[in-house]
Amino acid sequence: MSPTKVLLATLCMGISALAFAADPTPPATTAASPPGSTDTASTTAADKAATDKAAAEKAAAEKAKSTAAAKTEPGGITPDQAKTLRVAGYRPEARRGGVVVYCRSEEQIGSLFEHKSCGPAEDILRSVIDSQEAVSRMQHGLTH
Hints:
Elements: H1 3-20, H2 40-70, H3 79-87, E1 91-94, E2 100-107, E3 114-119, H4 121-139
Antiparallel strand pairs: 1-2, 2-3
């Protein structure tokens, strides 16, 4: 592999890491009120709003689960997960017993032969997410 190809591949990996990096969520701000000036009407309104928001989020999550369960790709994954695997270079392959695994060919350093890397969708997605989180931590200077 020529140095130009290595440089180009490294550049593409760096750009894709930036594209997959998630922006950090801003910290929640709370309005500070002076001690002794608590208003029970505003407190109950805030509690009701928080309860309504939690119920709406729960309903949205349940709807997403039911929609995702209705639309699945081979191997029981959602279309978004299948897209993530395709972007990472994986293709579905059927194995014995009807089990679907995702595989991609990787070049071995110092060899002219390619190595085929396969695994279940859940493991590959977990490693992709872990890699994205690691890149995000490095970019934002966080350590874990």
